[in-house]
Structures are given as structure tokens and as C-alpha cells.
Design brief:
The protein has 380 residues and is mainly beta. The chain folds into 2 domains: 202 residues, no CATH class; 120 residues, Sandwich (Immunoglobulin-like). It has 4 helices and 21 strands. Strands 14, 16, 17, 18, 20 and 21 form a 6-stranded mixed beta sheet that branches. Strands 7, 8, 9, 11 and 12 form a 5-stranded antiparallel beta sheet that branches. It has a 4-stranded mixed beta sheet with strand order 2-1-3-4. The longest helix has 19 residues. It is globular. The protein starts with a helix and ends with a strand.
């Protein structure tokens, strides 16, 4: 077999193994504000703009007003799980990073997100609206998951011409969560109903609840995975747009919140940076899944590498494998198959290598929507 084909298959298998045991992470930002806080509006705009730049699929934001007529008691209680005295403004990333000076140093938010984004997660999550105020929380465990599930309904809160993003209106579960346990390879769905007016629902799983100690500066509470019901949706722009807040450049491999590929027809679309590669070129493989119908659960997605007639099935790139996907209604989502890497130098040449991507019905007897294929090659 050509040495580059061998290298490519080894690389693909390596990335697939990493993916199989470390699900893509959506980072949770918990943001604390209150009345009579001069820098709180700056922090609110910073996290709102961060979410606009990075998207609901990459970051979940929940803001707590801990004092005043907009506060809810459990917002303060949540903050006390981290601080003996809740500091405002403050941002906690994934329950483990206390972000310093978020309004003054926007890069601190970027750094905290980067630090957590690449941490392995044992599961994926989705929050899917099923009509009215009803939601399904779906958890797909790649490794065994045990912890506490927190579900919060949020809305957008405007005060003194500043917009506070994803402002907590109701804890649908206790603020410290409710027990959840999912075996490796298992998928579960949990039904939840919101009782207040809201714009979205956030959910996350953190490690088991702990008692509030008497005195401390900051006490981590690690988050395993997070999700937002607005994942894939268009993001409202906060007003006014702060001139001092820089727009970050998403790090390598970060999916955009609004893909350039339009969602017009039910089916799968392959995205690669090119169809021909040389040493040092960036390579990745993403598949965009467009759903023009109602919510679809447990949809098999096949991504197949065809190397001169020999077939390798993602994500394990073995003789037979597939992804199990939940498709939100009338939305497009992205499945990363191969994360970013740079094409190796001195790897020979080849052409006519093919990737196929297609969904089927759960019985794997018929295609579900349109399929796609991408032919590519490489040279030294």
C-alpha cells in the first residue's frame, strides 16, 4: 500500500480513537452580576460578544443576577458553590476556571475557553424543544457518565441600554443538579418542562454535588458537558456594540456558529479545505447535516473513506462503524470527522481517494436525505 495511504489511515484511526473516547466539548460560562456594579455591564457585553463570535455550539452562557429585583435566589446559591462571597462581575468557565478581569481583558475569556475546549469529555449533549415549554435533554455517553444534571431556562435581560445574555429565569432542576448516570455507549433522554417565559434552555452535567464549605476563595465544580437549546440558531446581536471589545479569531479547528453551507435540503454535505494537498497544507473533514423536518433521533450517519475500493468507516475507520445523530428541527449541525492537522511532507502522491457521507433510517435500509462525496488527492 502507498506509504501516504498508510499514513493517512493511521492518522485517521488515531484521530477517530481520540474522538471515540473524548467527545467534542461545549464550554459553560457562568456569569455573575448585580445592581450598583459599575463594571458588570462591560462584562455582560464581553461574554455576549464572545458567544456571538464563537456560537451556541461552542459555548453555553448562563448569567445570574444575584441581587436586585431581577435576581432569583438560586443564582446566589450557585455562586456560593464557587465563592465564599460572590464577586461581581465574575465569570466561571466550566466550573473550574475563575476568569480574571473579564471586562478589562477579553483575551482572558478566549484563554479560558481554549483551555477547556480541548479537555476530553465523556459524552455529548443536546437540548431539543418538542413544542410549547417542553424539552428533551439527550445524553450520549462514550464513556460512563455520573454526576449532576442542571437545567436552566433563560431570557435576554436589558438594563440601562445593556443586554445581559442568557439571563437565568428558572432552575428547572435544583441549582446543584439532580443525579444522572449513563453507561458507556448508552443514550438517554430526559423530559423537562419550563414554567416561565424564556428564550432558551441551557443544560450541563457537573461532578457530584458538594456541601458548601465555610470559608474559601474559589472552589471548583467541574463540568463534564454542556448544551443549549439554541445550538445552531442565529444569535441576536447585543446593543449597543461596545467599541472597546475586540473580536477574537476562533482558534484552529473551531466550527463557526453559522456555517456558509446553506441548509436547504435534507441530507449530508462534506466540507474539506481543498481537494488536493501538499506537505504543510491544513486538512480537516467536517460533515454538515441539514434537517428540514421535525426532530429526528438516532439517525445513523455513515462517513466512509474509499481507498481504491477498500472501505474504512468513521469514526473508528474499521470495516463497519457509524455515528448516531440527533437532528434538531429545521436546523443544521456539524459533525467533525477529522480535526485539523497539517499534511505531512514527503508522503508520496495519490489521487482519486473518496469520502462518502450519508444518513440512513434507523434500520439502515434506506437513505435519509441526500448523500455527498468528495474526491481528493495529494503530492509531495
Amino acid at each position: 500500500m502507498n506509504r501516504l495511504i498508510q499514513y493517512f489511515l493511521i492518522s485517521a484511526a488515531l484521530f477517530a480513537c481520540i474522538s471515540a473516547y473524548s467527545a467534542p466539548r461545549t464550554v459553560l460560562f457562568e456569569h455573575f452580576s448585580q445592581d450598583l456594579c459599575l463594571t458588570c455591564p462591560l462584562t455582560a457585553e464581553a461574554v455576549a460578544n464572545f458567544r456571538n463570535d464563537y456560537g451556541y455550539d461552542s459555548v453555553v452562557i448562563v448569567s445570574y443576577w444575584i441581587q436586585g429585583d431581577q435576581s432569583i435566589p438560586d443564582g446566589m446559591n450557585r455562586g456560593r458553590e464557587y465563592y465564599n462571597e460572590v464577586i461581581t462581575p465574575s465569570v466561571v468557565a466550566d466550573g473550574v476556571i475563575n476568569v480574571p478581569n473579564p471586562p478589562q481583558d477579553y483575551q482572558a475569556l478566549v484563554d479560558a475557553w481554549n483551555a477547556r475546549r480541548n479537555e476530553p469529555s465523556p459524552c455529548t449533549m443536546a437540548v431539543v424543544g418538542t413544542g410549547g415549554n417542553n424539552y428533551i435533554i439527550q445524553v450520549d455517553a462514550e464513556q460512563a457518565v455520573s454526576g449532576q444534571l442542571v437545567v436552566v431556562a433563560y431570557s435576554y435581560f436589558e438594563k440601562d441600554d445593556h443586554v445581559y445574555p442568557c439571563f437565568a429565569r428558572e432552575f428547572v432542576t435544583p441549582y446543584f443538579g439532580e443525579p444522572i448516570s449513563v453507561a458507556a455507549g448508552e443514550s438517554i433522554q430526559i423530559n423537562k418542562t419550563v414554567s416561565v417565559a424564556h428564550d432558551g434552555v441551557a443544560a450541563w452535567i457537573h461532578t457530584d454535588a458538594k456541601a458548601i464549605p465555610g470559608a474559601r476563595r474559589f472552589d471548583p465544580w467541574p463540568v463534564l458537558q454542556a448544551a443549549d437549546s439554541n445550538a445552531g440558531a442565529t444569535i441576536p446581536t447585543p446593543t449597543p456594540e461596545p467599541e472597546h471589545t475586540p473580536t477574537p479569531t476562533p482558534p484552529q479547528g473551531t466550527p463557526t456558529a453559522t456555517p456558509d453551507i446553506p441548509c436547504e435540503n435534507l441530507g449530508a454535505t462534506i466540507s474539506m479545505p481543498s481537494n488536493f494537498f501538499s506537505g504543510g497544507d491544513l486538512f480537516y473533514l467536517d460533515v454538515y447535516l441539514c434537517n428540514t423536518e421535525n426532530t429526528q433521533y438516532n439517525v445513523p450517519l455513515f462517513v466512509i473513506l474509499d481507498v481504491y475500493g477498500q472501505l474504512f468507516f468513521a469514526p473508528s475507520f474499521t470495516e463497519f462503524d457509524m455515528y448516531n445523530i440527533t437532528l434538531p428541527p429545521n436546523q443544521q449541525i456539524m459533525q467533525t470527522v477529522l480535526p485539523d492537522f497539517f499534511w505531512p511532507h514527503g508522503a508520496g502522491q495519490a489521487d482519486g481517494i473518496i469520502f462518502y457521507a450519508a444518513m440512513t433510517n434507523p434500520e439502515i435500509t434506506d437513505l435519509f436525505g441526500e448523500l455527498d462525496m468528495a474526491v481528493f488527492g495529494w503530492t509531495n
